[in-house]
Specification:
Number of domains: 1
Largest sheet: 7 strands, mixed
CATH superfamily: Periplasmic binding protein-like II
Number of helices: 25
Strand content: 5-15%
Number of strands: 13
CATH topology: D-Maltodextrin-Binding Protein, domain 2
Oligomer: single chain
Radius of gyration: 24 Å
């Protein structure tokens, strides 16, 4: 496999989300000295006190931690190395949970924190060379199609029932994980388990949207209520309204939109993170459209067959071109002028400065930094002036499609790791996602992985200060936010094509259509090379021959699928909004029975 290296610096979304450039740039390790003997009761009680609140009773926590200590006895004294990217959740794991695990088990655990791109590079190095670089990995579930096809990743569902049964936590409760479908291959087997998750959602100034004067002016101009936009038409109207009608609030120039546009690697996942699906690219299906996914890649059976419209894909179809066109229009018309030259890391803090009305593409991992006391978007009583809500959809979107992206950093084992080291690493990876620790970890990083954590009473109490985060994760809408899926056969190779090609549209070097044509051709070229190499076996790419676009438009209509769609005569239907408070009240107020916390 060709290695994939991103430039050094705060370029990846997750490395920046710590809001700490030093932590993002410098690899951090915490080596922990292990005790000579298995954990005694005093050690267990010490860590139970740290892991509060928990969805488990203290008695059940004790039972689970005693199991870890017992199961780890054959591996005491071993030095095990695990790696993840640098975000707040993983910092807690590296600094606190690694220490706890070592004290409880006698295994010397070192949890490295490095940049997201470096995790991918080192993972590829081990897969390519067969040499053990790390014993355990936490890497994005975006690589599920890669892991499934290269055959070098341990199939966890098989491992837990077979070779690893003796080191699989009987209290793990796999069905409690909200993102299990993200880490399941086309064969129905589990390849990873989520360790942290966060979505990109719609962010808006609740205080401005509920201002009676602004509401009256908006209704008079557009004929409908100022509220959470349901479609892109309303988002555009609201952006126009605040930028060019309201113009200033308290003497400060305000803008109706925020984004970034510099041709830079960070521009790539601005779009691979489901921007096209929000517009209506691809087919229906959760977690990813079938046969065509949100990248525009068509898959038949388990084989990718093309991304260009000429091969039945949708990467350069009308819905995708519409999504890029709207991105560019809004960036130029409604965002601060400097946004066009910003990277993700530069644009991220801007909404918190207080002059942005709304942002469609906003990661919930920013929540902890957006609720800091004293900043411009917080009230004196500790409640936010803003809220988050489900994102609006574009004119090509149909009910049943995914509607946004959810990052799911997930625990992963490789076959090239020696069996005993793999078992010891599996114990640690389970420990950091176990019910004994996951609720406390969720409070630290606000990156939920378990249904039981989301519905715990401690988050009911905390919800009013988190701007809609808890309400969203408890809502039925959340299932429409999903990571990159199985149609993408080699995520590292294909992902790096996006920023270069869309960057040409952002810079004005190419039209949106020309940029997406080039991206589709580049993706097909990579998949063609994979097909010729045969390295991915029976589920590797097998490209369709090219046909005229009309062939595929007609086929989709005949088959009752969606992608690729013909160009719409009207890409801006009437705007539609919903009242935020009404929306929240419409969602279920009680948890599913299996998620009820003790």
């Amino acid at each position: 496999m060709r290695q994939f290296r991103r430039r050094k610096g705060p370029l990846t979304k997750n490395s920046f989300l710590t809001m700490s450039s030093a932590a993002a740039i410098v690899a951090v390790s915490f080596a922990v000295s292990a005790p000579v003997r298995a954990a005694d009761d005093a050690v267990i009680q010490k860590w139970i006190a740290e892991f509060q609140p928990s969805t488990l009773s203290k008695e059940d926590q004790k039972k689970e931690l005693e199991w870890f200590a017992k199961a780890a006895e054959p591996f005491k004294g071993m030095e095990i190395n695990v790696v993840s990217e640098t975000i707040t959740t993983h910092e807690y794991e590296s600094q606190t949970l690694a220490k706890a695990f070592s004290e409880l088990t006698g295994i010397k655990l070192k949890h490295d924190l490095i940049q997201e791109g470096d995790v991918v590079e080192k993972l590829q190095t081990q897969m390519q060379s067969g040499k053990n670089v790390y014993d355990g990995w936490i890497n994005d579930s975006d690589l599920i199609g890669t892991h499934f096809r290269y055959g070098q990743t341990v199939v966890l569902s098989d491992y837990m029932a077979g070779e690893g049964k003796d080191v699989t936590d009987p209290m793990l409760d796999v069905n409690d994980f909200t993102g299990k479908s993200f880490t399941t291959g086309p064969d129905g087997k589990l390849y990873q388990l989520p360790d942290q998750q966060f979505a990109n959602l719609y962010w808006f100034r609740y205080d401005w949207f509920t201002n009676p004067d602004y509401k009256a002016k908006f209704k008079a101009k557009y004929g409908y209520e100022l509220g959470v936009p349901v479609n892109w038409s309303a988002y555009e109207d609201i952006a126009e309204f605040f930028t060019n009608d309201i113009k200033e609030i308290n003497g400060v120039k305000v803008y109706g939109h925020m984004d970034y546009g510099k041709k830079d690697p960070s521009l790539g996942w601005r779009f691979t993170d489901a921007w096209l699906s929000m517009a209506g690219n691809g087919d229906k299906g959760i977690p990813n459209g079938l046969p065509v996914d949100e990248w525009g890649i068509r898959m038949e059976g388990c084989r990718p067959v093309g991304s260009s419209v000429e091969r039945g894909g949708d990467t350069n179809g009308p819905a995708a071109v519409y999504s890029i066109t709207k991105y560019l229009d809004w960036l130029k018309k409604y965002a601060p002028p400097q946004a066009q030259g910003m990277t993700f890391s530069e644009a991220g803090p801007v909404p918190a400065q207080g002059n942005i009305a709304q942002q469609m593409f906003w990661y919930t991992a920013f929540t902890a930094d957006m609720v800091k006391p004293g900043i411009a978007v917080m009230n004196a009583d500790g409640t936010p002036k803003w809220r988050m809500a489900p994102s609006p959809h574009g004119s090509y979107w149909k009910e049943g499609m995914k509607l946004g992206y959810q990052d799911a950093g997930s625990v992963t084992l490789l076959k090239s790791t020696p069996a005993d080291r793999r078992k010891a690493a599996w114990l640690y990876l389970q420990f950091i996602i176990s019910k004994s620790v996951s609720l406390k970890k969720s409070h630290v990083g606000l990156t939920f992985i378990r249904e039981s954590d989301i519905w715990d009473k401690s988050f009911t109490e905390r919800a009013p200060k988190l701007g809609g985060l808890i309400e969203f994760y408890r809502s039925p809408a959340r299932v429409q936010w999903t990571p990159t899926g199985n149609n993408v056969p080699d995520y590292p190779k294909l992902a790096q094509l996006w920023w270069q090609n869309i960057g040409d549209a952002s810079s004005g070097a190419k039209t949106p259509q020309a940029a997406m044509d080039a991206l589709a051709a580049a993706q097909d070229s990579v998949m063609e090379r994979l097909e010729k190499s045969g390295v991915q076996g029976a589920c590797g790419p097998k490209l369709h021959k090219k046909e005229k676009p009309e062939y595929w438009f007609a086929k989709a209509e005949k088959d009752g699928t969606i992608a690729p769609q013909r160009k719409l005569a009207n890409e801006k239907p009437k705007g539609e909004t919903v009242d935020y408070d009404t929306l929240i009240k419409s969602w279920p107020a009680t948890p599913p029975k299996r998620a009820e916390a003790k």
